[in-house]
Amino acid sequence: MVFRLSWMLTCLAVVVAVTGCGPSKILPPPDALPQTLGDRSLWHTPQAYIYAGERAIAGETDRWVGELQRYLRRTYDRDIGKGLVIVIDKDETPIVNTLEEMTRLQRDVSTVAAAAPDKKLSVEELRRKLQEVGMSESLACSIALMNLDDVTLNEVGLAGALPEEVAWRVCCPSQRLMEEAIWEFAPVALEKHLGKGFAVMTAWAWPVAFAEAAKALRLGRDVTVFQMWASRQSDWSTEKRLAEVARYTRERAFVISPMLSLALAMVKKNAMGTENDAVQKQTAIAADSKQF
Length: 292
Known about the structure:
By secondary structure, the chain is α/β, with parallel strands linked by helices. It has one domain (19-278). The protein contains eleven helices and six strands. The chain has a six-stranded mixed sheet with strand order 1-2-3-4-6-5. Helix 9 runs antiparallel to helix 10 and helix 10 packs across helix 11 (258-290).
């Protein structure tokens, strides 16, 4: 009996490893959307219309969207709304091919998410930064989470009206692509900024360190989609929205990786310390000026 159970579990593990775990529930495809988008197939799930090249990638996407849906239900008793997600996997062509288009769509994400815009680099500054860390423009376009506007949807083959229930639409990288991206540029960045000797001495720790760095990309994806949802909550003030985004970031970081959560807490603490030092310095300068 024990042998049979062990044999069955082994076979199941082999099947999962070979085929991957797809979406937990597949719904009938809608008439308004094509069944394929280039090399990607449509996977209609309760939470999203997912275009992915592999069943496993569709399942991975279905799970993180589902986790966000369960969080919203549990925390606010609200729904995420139906999404349209195009997933970019390793060795696949990105949705956009230029930094100009990438930065435009990323600015559009901030607009859709009603987020306070960060100080953005110009395209040329961004191009220099990418060269410094050894990341190609194609890879940068592949791993960027971007809002899919009507122009971009038309260019990728989704012209015409989307199903009415679509409340948000993004292009995002697969987890496999995130991990590959870190391995492509992180060694070059380490050697450039900390020296070849440091890079060689710490190479033994790269598998763990780079895996954690890839988890930070996952967190950024999840937080951005949460921001997009929060912007649609018309009864939330700006202060409420910012507070809930900060809350979700803390909680999601811990779920993805306690180590990542600790690192974010340390970064925040150091930033607060720097801000307090600046305030104290300004106060001292003001006090000294009053003496004259």
